[in-house]
Design goal:
The structure is a homodimer. The first copy, chain A, is built from 10 helices and 11 strands. Chain A is α+β, with helices and mostly antiparallel strands. Chain A has 2 domains: about 70 residues, Arc Repressor Mutant, subunit A; about 120 residues, no CATH class. The interface between A and B is large, with 48 and 48 residues. Chain A binds a DNA duplex through helix 4.
Chain lengths: ~230, ~230
DNA sequence: GCGACAGTTCGGTATCAGCCGAACCATCCG
DNA sequence: CGGATGGTTCGGCTGATACCGAACTGTCGC
């Protein structure tokens, strides 16, 4: 336990892990650049993270692509971030276009987060398609129908008839969005439909023109795309 | 995020936090003894943990009682422990009566864990009283009936009709047990009935004579109380 | 083969954070 | 009041570890 936390408890390593929480695999060089440390230092850090099985790596051509080793690790990082967000006084970080983009829409390992993630969760709850509390979530019958129409693959993993969806506390919004199988499927499908696009080296997500229309028509979500985010309260 | 993880990433502090995960509030002296550090060092650590809102403190007479600040923090520690347990090669820690007791039955913040916790979860699942997957859990109608008969208070927090129960990955058993509202209620009721007893300064839980009978009759659980735990695979 | 690029290893430096004991403050109890 | 107990603050010590540059390995593409 100590070792794991200590690994996350270093700025350079935490930066790398955060970047990888975007869900994309990144190379050692990219990670060293993001963390603003020399390649040699980064190499050492990555070695430790691999050793502790927080990261996994695959060699492709002459690059080594690092990624979060498992959903369990992702969940842990989520929960650490959630606690850290609580602790931080309400708005300490300076506003910047970068931060605003992240607050707007970003990926969280394998699902959507930020205002968009929360908006989708809210919309589905409002329509009675899912039930979501801080202890758990579930897709209703009508919700399963709707999501299947949307194009999501909803095989419940185990034998259980129910399709659960895990709530994930959003550090920027302090509200829940949808993680787990359902969250991953929604994100996958949005990509597939060309509604959303990811940018390399950042967790921020772009909403395309068709995406704006689609999100409005299907989910009933209208996005205020200018950085007029309120953050009130 | 870094700060929070760094706080947990120190042996002395992690020991204290682990002890407090037993659910009981402990004094500074007790914590310093458990972590085997001087009072002055412990005082410094506790100050930091309070500052970061990982712990909360209440003064009672001339003692200061420290406790985990919130369920969110508890959840975070759980998840760190879960990852750490995966990483650790299967059975590195030496067997001891202490460890065996902990593996047998212990508290995890506000609910039961260890073989007993898993056994209860298994029993409830087998009888169709709850549904439990790695993404979430829920009490069925018959389960709600059963648990109410048992004496648990089952008010769903929000308006939603459903009663969720959060699954918590057990580091010693590598299986899920029941956390959240339901888990807390079961533990509370077991204490109330005198089935279980807690020991000061340890997370290990004692099963009383009546507890053995009650667990067998109500939940259908027979406990092998000798330390013949298998841990096979 | 030969630059160019990706990544690791090694040696040396320096900072940081944990640790303790002693002194100190506060509360309790006889 | 005075000794005992619980806890914090302070100053000084020390070990751990993050950091870098330079040298090295290996792979790619021309």
């Amino acid at each position: 336990m100590v070792e794991v936390a200590a690994l996350v408890g270093d700025t350079a390593r935490a930066t790398m892990l955060s970047a990888l929480m975007g869900g994309q695999a990144l190379t050692a060089s990219e990670l060293s650049a993001l963390a603003r440390i020399s390649k040699s230092t980064a190499s050492g850090h990555l070695k430790k993270l691999i050793g502790a099985r927080l990261l996994a790596v695959t060699q492709k051509r002459r690059n080594r692509y690092y990624r979060i080793a498992s959903p369990l690790v992702a969940k842990m990082l989520e929960s650490i971030k959630a606690v850290a967000a609580l602790e931080t006084p309400p708005r300490y970080q300076p506003r910047s276009i970068q931060n605003d983009r992240l607050r707007m829409a970003r990926t969280c390992y394998d699902h959507l987060a930020g205002q968009l993630g929360v908006a989708i969760a809210d919309a589905l709850v409002a329509k009675g398609y899912i039930v979501l509390t801080d202890e758990g979530g579930e897709v209703t019958d009508s919700g399963a129908h709707f999501l299947r129409d949307f194009g999501a693959e909803l095989r419940p993993k185990s034998r259980s008839r129910r399709i659960f969806c895990r709530p994930c506390l959003d550090w920027s919004e302090r509200r829940y969005h949808i993680a787990g199988l359902i969250g991953a499927e929604i994100w996958r499908r949005c990509l597939e439909l060309g509604w959303l696009q990811r940018n390399r080296n950042t967790r921020a997500v772009q909403v395309t023109r068709t995406g704006q229309i689609g999100l409005r028509d299907v989910f009933g979500i209208t996005l205020k795309l200018d950085s007029s985010s309120s953050r009130s309260a």
